[in-house]
Amino acid sequence: MASASLRPAAVAGSFYPDNGQQLQLQLSDLLSAQSPPSITGSPPKALVVPHAGYIYSGPVAATAYKALETWRHLYRRVVLLGPAHRVPLRGAALPAAQAFDTPLGPIDVDREAWLELQTLPGVSVSDAAHAAEHSLEVQLPFLMVSLGHFRIVPLLIGHMPAEQVAGLLNAVWGGPETLLIISTDLSHYLDYASARTVDRHTCDRVLSLCSDIDHEEACGASPLNGFLMEARKRRLRPHLLDLRNSGDTSGQRGRVVGYASFTFDEDEDGARH
Are the C-beta atoms of 168 and 226 separated by less than 8 Å? Predict the structure, then answer.
């Protein structure tokens, strides 16, 4: 259980190594195996990335984090939205903890945004929701290696209308110093061929900025739909970087989980607010 000051790493040693040196090496290997994206004209405003164990979804997530390499000097704050897997949740939950621990060191929560978000409808403070949750935690080591020093705004999303999620994002959108991370896997436990078909269709809708994806298509549909609604309003440009599933990364193709990574950048004619 998290304390009021520090939220311990909950899935270090299972989803990723709990030894800092081993973790650093694994991340370096994952990132160095990726080529920089061909689309590099603008810094990403947002990433959509998976959140499984690194041996399953790490290579797919790494394609998006590699896209930050050129722009790492810009980002000072990262807003993370992911689904709550462990605790039933209505609305959105911030942690009471003011820092998240990782095997690479702690990361501070942006207290100003933490206070501001608590004034919005549907937002609560719950260490219980965050204590064992992996959807945000697995992104933190990638971010530490990719960006260096930054603060985080960690939000778990339960049952919450897309309009309300979009309102949360609007409140913390910021400028070029703020990066948004939407954490979601795609379909779960379909056979390999079916998953490829379903996940391709889901990705096409993400690329069209459709905000009606259901939870059978993406476990993080609630944060994803809210983000896509706000992305459409702000004319963000989506780019699909990688689409695979656990059958591709693990070789077991009977019942697989889908993973995709996207970057979103801002339209220079009007979306930079």
Answer: yes
Domain that holds residue 246: 22-265
CATH of the domain at 244: 3.40.830.10
Residues in the chain: 273
Q: Tell me whether residue 75 is in a domain.
A: yes
**By percentage, how much of the chain surpasses pLDDT 70?**
96
State the pLDDT at residue 268.
Answer: 61
169 lies in some domain: yes
Dihedral sign from CA coordinates of 134, 137, 142, 145: negative
CA 210/CA 228 separation, integer angstroms: 6
Number of separate domains in the chain = 1
The predicted model scores a pTM of 0.95
Q: What are 241-273's pLDDT values in tens digits?
A: 999 999 999 888 989 999 999 999 997 654 433
Cβ neighbours of residue 80 under 8 Å, at least 6 residues apart? 136, 139, 152, 153, 154, 155, 181, 183
10 Å Cβ neighbour count for 252? 11
> Given this model, what pLDDT does residue 271 score?
43
